[in-house]
Each structure stands twice: as structure tokens, then as C-alpha cells.
Amino acid sequence: MTRTTRLSVLLGDYPHTRPLKDGTIPVDKVDCHFPSAAPLYSAFPRMVRDLEFDVCEMPVATYFQAREAGVPVTLLPVVMIGATHHGSLTRLPDGPVLDPGRLAGQRIGVRSYSQTTGMWVRGILREDYGVDASDITWITTEDPHVAAYRDPPNVERSYGWSVAELLREGVVAAAVLGPRAIGAQGTLLVPVIEDAEAAARAWTERHGTVPANHLLVVRDDVLKSQPDAVTALYRALARGIADTAGERDLTTPAGRAVAAGWSDALARCLETAARYAREQEVVRTPVDLARIEKDAASLTA
Q1: Rounded CA separation 27/13 (Å)
Q2: Which of 87, 94, 247, 270 is deepest in the core (most CB within 10 A)?
Q3: pLDDT digits (tens, 9 = 90+) for 54-73
Q4: Helix (H) or strand (E) holding 215
Q5: Are 139 and 108 spatial neighbours (Cβ–Cβ below 8 Å)?
């Protein structure tokens, strides 16, 4: 009788995960259980604090912090979602126009200081506009996913408010929110960076990559005891990404970001993200990119 392994796999709902979840693409000799979490990010602290799942989607910044804290997880080189973030720093349409190069001294809202989108936005501000993360007071509404992490001194916690409420009530001048984040209330937001799409194109051309937001991690004990099952899951996801390419707009950064396998683009992405994270004190020790690449590449050989 063929032995079947069982894996608990927490993935978001995307075109490339649908074939695995509905069984269209089987995971060879693996019985995958796909728990759900709403919102998806509520699962991330459960993974890094309690190792609740065998395999879990995870934001880049959370993964870096988890490694630094000694959480026993290994990266699987699958970009689940990614996008450019020049348009993710937004303001109210009837508020004052903000110069991204003159944001020093301002208060900006973000769900958590270690949120990956916020990390990319702060990196952009420093690299493209000369504004350091420490020049701004960051108002957060949630704790970091990794319990051991402590925010820098220029981060304040606001209890009982959402980021959208902070912006609407004038507590912050701008927020890390998508342009349509307050759309349900009838308000469309305006990017702080003018012609954000052109600025994003210049960034991607300069770096040769698209910012990744979520990748995958596997528990080290699962990887050690069930390596074939992990490899089978990776191959099924890679097939799901390939088979659903027609459902993504590959002319957009978000469409191009989704990918499986170690690549030069992923290496450049993680190198840039690691630099941003260190500059911003998202992590306080250098990220061992060579070890990450070695471990991830060995899983997909």
C-alpha cells in the first residue's frame, strides 16, 4: 500500500492555489489539508509563534524577523503575491498635497511597523526621496507578528483605531493603504507620490525585480521528516502557477511577481528587502542571504 503523508498548508485564495485546493492538481502521495484564515494575515502570528501549520504563506518582513528570532522555518521559493508600492503611500483626496521628499516630521499610519508593504514604502522613501524611516513617526494599529520583536522608538501604537480611521480623523497625514482602501466608505485615496506608476517602473527597471510581499515557509521538523512531501507540494504549486498564467496580467508588476523557483529576480528582491529591513530596524542583524538561497535552492533541485 502506498503511504500517504498529511500536510497542513495555509495558503491564500489565488488563481494559482485554486487547483491545489479543489484537487485539480494533486500533490503526489500527500493528503493536503488547507485551513483558512480571514483575514489571511491573522494566520501569520499563529505560524511564527505557535508553528500551527506545516507550510504557511508568509510576508517577507515577517520571515526575516522569524529567522532572526530563531523560529525554525525554512523558505520555499514561491512568490505568492507581489507588487510595486509607490502607490501604497496615500492621503485623503481633499487633504494637503504632500511632497514625498519632505515627509520628515510627519505622522504616517501603518497597520504594523513590520508589515511588508510598509517596509517597501519606507525603502522607497529613503532610496528615491532621501527620507529615512527614523525621520517619521509611524502610528501603528497592530502588534508585530513575531512576539520577540520590539518597534523602534519612533513608532507609536494607537489602540482601537484602524489605519483608515487614523487618516480620516486627521491623526496621520498619510497612510500605508491602497488607493481604494477606504472605497467602501465612498472615499478614494490619492498616492502621495505623483505619477506613482512611472516611479514604480523606474524602480523595477533599476532593481531588475518586483517587490515580493508573500512567500512560503515550511517548519524545519516537517522538512526534515517529510522532505518528499514538501517537494511534492512545491512542484504542485509551481504547476499551479504555470497553468494559471493566463489568469494573471503578465504586463503588470503584480502579474509578473508570482513565480516558483529560485531566480536572479528573487535573489535581487530578497537582497533589496534585506537591506531595507536592516536600514529600518525591521531586523537588527544582517540577513544571511547566502544561507537562504542555499536552503531554498536545495528544495527545488
Answers
A1: 17
A2: 270
A3: 999 999 999 999 999 999 99
A4: strand 212-219
A5: yes
**Contact present, 80 and 241 (Cβ < 8 Å):** no
C-alpha cell at 73: 522555518
pLDDT in tens, 123-148: 999 999 999 999 999 999 999 999 99
Sheet with 174-176: strands ordered across: 155-157, 137-140, 107-110, 174-176, 89-91, 190-191
- Assess whether pLDDT exceeds 70 at residue 278: yes
What's the rounded Cα separation, in Å, for the pair 196 and 199?
A: 5
**Confidence (pLDDT) at 298:** 79
Integer distance in angstroms from the first to the last C-alpha of the chain? Answer: 28
Average pLDDT, the chain: 94
- Mean pLDDT to the nearest integer, 216-234: 96
Residue with cell 513565480: 259
107-110 and 212-219 as β-strands: parallel, antiparallel, unpaired? unpaired
Nearest to 120 by CA among 188, 162, 61, 34: 61
Quick one: cell of 174?
498619510
Mean pLDDT (whole number) for 257-272? 97
Do 2 and 229 touch, CB atoms closer than 8 A?
Answer: no
